[in-house]
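Note to self: the last two entries modelled the partners one at a time, which told us nothing about the interface. This time every component goes in together.
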Amino acid sequence: MKRIGVYICHCGTNIASTVDCESLVLFSKGLPGVKIARDYRYLCSDPGQDIIKKDITDFSLEGIVIAACSPRMHEVTFRNLLKTAGINPYCLNMANIREQCSWVHQDRNEATEKAEQLIRAAVARVLRQKALETKKVEIKPSILVVGAGIAGIQAALTIASEGTKVVLVERAPFIGGHMAQLDKTFPTLDCASCIFTPKTVEVARNRNIELHVCSEVVEVKGYVGNFKVSIKKYPTYVDPSRCTGCGECIEACVLKKGVASEFEERMVNRKAIYIAFPQAVPLKAVIDPQACLFLSRGKCKKSCLEACKAQAIDFEQKEEFIEKEVGAIILATGYDLFDPHLLPQYGYGVYENVLTNLQFERLLSPSGPTRGEILLKDGTSPKAIAFLHCIGSRDENANPYCSRVCCMVSMKQAHLAKEKTGSEVFEFYIDINAFGKGYQEFYKRVREEGIFFIRGKGSEVFKREGRLVVAAEDTLLGTPIEIPVDMVVLGAGLSARRDAEKVAQVFGINQSPDRFFMEAHPKLRPVATSVDGIFLAGCCQGPKDIPDTVAQASAAAAEAISLVTRGEIEVEPITSWIDPELCSGCKLCVEICPTSAIQFIEAKGISSVNEALCKGCGACAAICPSKAARQNHFTQDQILAEVEELAE
Amino acid sequence: MKIDPKTFARDYNLHVCIQCGTCTGGCPVKFRSPLNMRRLVRQTYFTPDPSLFRRPEWWACTTCSTCTLRCPAGVKNVELILGVRNYLANQGEVPSTIRDALENTLLHGNPWGRFRDRRIDWARDLEIKILGEETAENLFFIGCAPSYDPRVQSLSVVLFKIFKKADLDFGILGKKESCCGNEIRRMGEEALFRKLSKDNTNLIKKTGVKRIITISPHCYNVFKNEYPDLGLPVHHYTQVLIELIEAGRIKLKGGAETLLTYQDPCFLGKQNGIFEEPRKILRSIPGITLIEMERSRERSLCCEGGGGRMWTEGFTEGTRNAEIRVREALHLKVRILATSCPFCLLTLEDAVKTSGLADQIVVKDIGELVGEAIDSNSDNPIPCLPAGRQAPNNHQ
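The predicted structure of the combined assembly is written out below.
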């Protein structure tokens, strides 16, 4: 029989005040295999660990039971202790007498009795536990970054500057994401393109970055350190190696009316062949196959072909699939603006001068549809503008969360509107969330500029005598008000991408109830996901402003670099395995495995576990009808012994 | 829900209110009464003092539910109003006209105190199935105003004729039909509402009908959303009409070219999302061109006929919304203001008369318009524009 040591922790008074630790020592000494039992104030402290270490040598212990807190807290601490003391770290069992006993009971006698049961069960299991060896796998030394907005670009540049290869995949024909659409950034009013263009240009130039635009990741296989990804590259019908970005083809395109420009937030039209904006990286024309008369209807005189001196246009281009092997993945897929059509009271889509904040941003931009002038649809200048906060945010009928950026966006835009037009500007707000560095100061500044802040959420927008009217309540006066204006800018919030579910599925990660991707721990692991080796950056994880996005992207890059430059990685040995003698090939385990770690081997007619992928959840062991699937560290005899002792 | 001043704020989940004023900003009586929903939530949150409930403005609310539907925090403002009115009703502290309406409903099954025996006077000369005595697929639930009010009775007759023409298998509850209770609940008489709900449910279930068709959006709302044990599909008549038109069971013939606008009833549109069916019907009548008012659909302005306001002015002052609405319609140069609710019909028609605009605009129910369009020998043509007024060209 194994020689066991049992150690009971007081956890200060957390355990000792409800459980009689001294009597537990006496009780433990009487259990089978137990050679020594002790109690101590804090076992996790250095002196506490030293006691155990000394006992292991003195009493030649082979298994340890720690009766203390949850294994989530200190299992790793004690495993390391066992390792340094020279015994296998998996010959350890923790009896949770804190969360599952002292914290939830009041009666000292009953709590002590329960603690006895927990310790007895833990001893029974540790007697049957086997030594397990951790395995090491090699890591592929490159990183995939999905999405090339400010988050993806920041992550890619950080990784590339360290010397690691990056595969950067972007769905749009250009990089830059939403930040490329912005005019100025709060609170410093830096020109967005002045601070951003150097970065986008560097992405195109950096030899460590392999950029794929018009591309999407469609499949991810493998596991941490060894991901195999499949990238679908959509045809652009323009050979990027020949295109010089001269724009002659655009002039030549015969599509008269054009189609709404996504980059200009549908405020103006573009041609079927187009370059989204003058500073686009890469500066290459692309053809929108839905809009192109030749590609959609087969009927066009193809004047673009003629116009292109570089002979770059190629209507025969087909989609391609590119396979890559990477050690880590960073998701930086960004956000979609909340669609104000969903709140019809604001008249978005009904009135042409009701805009979203992103549309207004394009009006502000010198490269936008009005060359930076704030104009109404009829070309005149507005005399009064209303900014409505919290459109689709903090709203039970839309998104319940705060989108974090819209207050500052609205105030920045109000400032610029006042500066450019001298019009009356109204801000309809519930609370001003100006939480960042320099934000509150900016709020004060715009107040000083004479912008009218009305503490009340815009209730509806309608037209009266040719002008837009915002109905609300001035809640500080307690008076209902209706303010006539010429333009209404809706402070639309940030939503998870419309296809976030699909992306989550491709990468096997989770979403929080708000549909954004879920981090491994909201405080302590904010850039990791539940899948080892996949990290998050930017708004795909939740709404955030540019400084936070850049910080998070740098953190994700650092985590990914530290992972892939390690060379090899240790894999937990608590995995399942399938006894080939017993497996009947029913494939139930293949279906239930959440990490796709089990494969069916057709040739042998049995299933087999890829230990590197297995997370040790035990689902296969539970479902297997022939008891062929088994889980290391949680074997049938170990668990039954534990349960039997508990039931006694 | 019962009012207990001690647990009031918790019972009505008032703690979640963020005082943003969305409710007050969108309230249709915000300029007509001191009613300020946001302030009431705040005050009742802090003051469990029942004297607060005795303010007259609690009766100004039309229960149109704009506030509740828009509230970003999920406060059910209208339920709060009903709770307070329920408290007042239990104390006997309701306006006398409301008291009479409630008593009448208890005694006679309708808030106007008309005799139960005269409930089907409107159908005197019609061959109509009385359910209970006969069976049918559909229950045509008439409701109180369409049973007794001479203006709305004609709508009941028209709809009867349309359904007959379309070979719809339907019948009515006859003299046994009682008030649906929608307004009763909104006037605060929760107990009487429960009684009506129970009686009507038993009565309807016994008939073996497969669905209920209502004239009033108010009946539609209460059957659909507030009767706990009904378990039958409920359709507003506009949903039935469009179904019959699209199936080709009603053929609509053209009349004179007419411009028209439509008032969304709050209990049909905002509260139950039925915006398209009435519009589809109007567009399918040859000759009629529908022009939308500035405030339509979710932004429609309440006519002030709901929430018991048919029986009390609710201490409101200034121009009635119905008059504002009529003027908005007139501004579009239409000659018909259409609606699909008996209360809207009455309030808007009243506004036309009090504003002295009867020679310029008429108020019609969609049922009446459909009736005219299928009646080939119509001796009741759609009224012409008064001389000198010309319709704008709306064909773009």
